[in-house]
Design goal:
Blueprint: H1 2-17, H2 21-74, H3 92-95, H4 103-119, H5 122-134, H6 137-145, H7 150-162, H8 169-172, H9 181-194, H10 212-224, H11 234-239, H12 243-255, H13 262-267, H14 274-286, H15 293-298, H16 305-318, H17 324-333, H18 337-350, H19 353-365, H20 368-377
């Protein structure tokens, strides 16, 4: 049989090789298109089948799992009696039900516990966590963390983070430097939430960048996590070679108003990267670092437009009043509209008697276009 098949394929190849080149190419493309279509349809059917099986299993198991959580946690007779969570015990007979030994069932149980814990805090939330531990579901999550699939690792990180289960540095730190950006972001977020003493330790070893979207998510986690240990971020501003880490630390320095970091931020004004330099200027402005004003003004003319705009914003935020004439000249004589706008806003931001007199003088002597810019900048709805 195999010989007949081989002969048939050989004859087909001989006939194919006799065809003109453009027909050969067309037939190859048709074959590839048909195979790709079959694979796509097969993949869709396979996913729909898996989804159907999962939904049927979920419909059958949900009442059982809901009853377990309701009886063992929500209606636990020891709730509200000031009994330590670790001393509250569950009905072992209910927990040892054979149905909870199946991996698929245990995954549904984990997902349900996480969903409940998002809605319940305090004693009930801690009791849900204890049920997760007592049913040894922790090991299921750690087993997923040891797999090679990055999607499975991320799912494990979400489970362990939601249940506040510590992960050893030897296991989690390497993931914070993963080449996969999604896994890298999830690992860093998990490290911040789970590490009680050094939540920013991964900054020391990070070589991969923190992408802008990841910075937003991480910033939200840092600023909303309770009892998080906030270090002096100037250490990474001074020593880190990862520019994205330094930029992120500048944002955190400004948010937490770390005045002791000003000398480290000032050192960045000499960097060659103008985008990096603009971030440092923005940070100094948000810190109201009056000590930086002279340096910013002296280097202003040699800077690109983005750094000039950040300098004008910084002078407006610091608002010492020492450089109002400089701001006035930039507004009146600059040919760049953005520079004019930010110079006007900086003068208005001073909100002092001298700045108000200066604005009145400008309004009386300047042209109609400049007057319109000032009126626009005086709108209190515009955020500075």
């Amino acid at each position: 049989m195999w010989n007949d098949l081989a002969n048939l394929l050989f004859l087909a190849y001989e006939q194919f090789s006799l065809l003109p080149l453009f027909i050969e190419i067309a037939l190859i493309l048709i074959f590839v298109a048909v195979m790709a279509t079959l694979i796509a349809y097969g993949s869709i059917l396979f996913r729909r089948y898996n989804s159907s099986v999962y939904n049927k299993r979920l419909a059958h198991l949900s009442p059982i799992i809901e009853d377990l959580i309701t009886e063992q946690v929500l209606l636990n007779e020891n709730l509200g009696k000031d009994i330590p969570i670790e001393e509250i015990h569950f009905d072992q007979k209910a927990l040892s039900n054979k149905i909870f030994r199946k991996p698929a069932v245990r995954q549904i149980l984990i997902d349900t516990l996480i969903r409940y814990r998002k809605n319940f805090r305090g004693e009930v939330g801690e009791l849900l966590r204890k049920l997760y531990i007592d049913m040894n579901l922790v090991e299921d999550s750690f087993a997923k963390l040891r797999t090679f699939k990055w999607e499975t690792k991320i799912k494990a990180l979400v489970e362990l983070t939601q249940m506040d289960i510590p992960i050893s540095d030897s296991m989690l730190l390497p993931l914070t430097n993963s080449v996969n950006p999604t896994l890298r972001a999830a690992s860093r977020n998990a490290y911040i939430q789970l590490s009680k003493n050094e939540p920013f330790k991964f900054f020391d070893v990070a070589t991969e960048p923190i992408l802008p979207w990841d910075q937003m998510e991480m910033f939200k986690i840092i600023t909303t996590t309770k009892d998080i240990t906030i270090p002096n971020f100037s250490r990474w501003v001074s020593y880190s070679n990862n520019k994205s880490i330094v930029v992120f630390c500048l944002k955190l320095i400004a948010y937490y108003d770390q005045q002791t970091a000003i000398p480290s931020v000032l050192e960045l004004l000499g960097t060659k990267d103008h985008r990096f330099r603009a971030e440092a200027i923005k940070c100094l402005g948000k810190l109201s670092a009056e000590i930086a004003e002279e340096k910013l003004v002296s280097m202003y003319t040699s800077q690109p437009v983005n750094c000039q705009i950040e300098t004008l914003k910084a002078l407006g935020r610091i608002a010492s009043g020492k450089h109002l004439e400089f701001l006035k000249n930039e507004f009146l004589f600059s040919n760049n509209f953005d520079v004019q706008m930010n110079a006007a806003r900086a003068i208005i931001r001073h909100n002092s008697q001298i700045s108000r007199l200066m604005l009145n003088e400008i309004m009386e002597t300047t042209n109609e276009e400049n007057q319109l810019i000032i009126r626009h900048c005086q709108n209190p709805l515009i955020k500075y």
